[in-house]
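re: that chain from earlier
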Amino acid sequence: IAQAVSGTGLVTMSNNLGRYYIAGEGGLPTQITLLPPVPTDGAIGTTVELTALLEGDSGSGFSPLGDQPVLFSIGQDFRLGWTEASGADEGKLTVEIPLTGSAPGTYDVFVSFPGTPEYDASSDASETFTVLAQDTSVTLVPEIAFANSLEPNVPIVAQLRGTVNSVPDTPLAE
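^ sequence. v structure.
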């Protein structure tokens, strides 16, 4: 493992994701690439589809790496997936990330491979993504309620509506 302490007492540690480091050993180079089309924006509550290709250098050039973990993230939203193990899509994977944890703003689209004992870790963060706020509305049923005419057993319901996956006026909460 590797540990470091700053002058102010902050401590950090790296343990190679639980595999520990072996002195004098290094893995083979890898490269991971986001494949087009990479979306540039999306509204909170929608999903974003991202695709990547993971390749490793076995000494005779880069070739696809199958059955490997890859992490995608946009701000606080992330998904882990595994590359295709064989066939025409070997080394590729596509994930859908629900935009539920990031506030509106601009973030990097980040994809990373944590590495294995045989292959080094790699990452790509070449794209930016804008998380957009949702247009929402709140309706009350009944629309108007007077304190002097409200009976104890008459419910008042508030419904939050917005756009989900390009469908406007979708109930979000009640």
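The two ends are 50 Å apart (CA to CA).
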